[in-house]
Amino acid sequence: xxxxxxxxxxxxxxxxxxxxxxxxxxxxxxxxxxxxxxxxxxxxxxxxxxxxxxxxxxxxxxxxxxxxxxxxxxxxxxxxxxxxxxxxxxxxxxxxxxxxxxxxxxxxxxxxxxxxxxxxxxxxxxxxxxxxxxxxxxxxxxxxxxxxxxxxxxxxxxxxxxxxxxxxx
Length: 169
Fold this sequence. Notes:
It is built from eight helices and no strands. It is mainly α and 169 residues long.
């Protein structure tokens, strides 16, 4: 029984290039949902943000986007891990594309102007599963954090203070 389950986990979700291209938006959507869910609250603002990101990133029509977001919610609820989804991305994308996804995940995490430690942990886990180095993970975080400064004053937007739930790196 256990060997059968392990074999199923190792099976590729997509066998052809067309299947890979079809599953990439779904895999990315599940990762966005995982970050949004990390603080145990998926707000409509977060859904709108990652939906807009998906639409732009994959050039999706509104009806395609609706289906992918709906299916990603079902996949997220039924999933016991992220490996299947990061594997699709690893098989299809180069290092720079994966880095850009990590940047988008940080943008989602910072979208409410505070970073929950679980969001940070989730992005770290995703970055590791996608073989994004720790230095690139930090680079993505700092890129988003610096981009969150208000252009008129250069003063950072409010964020949570370091403590038991957040870290500085």
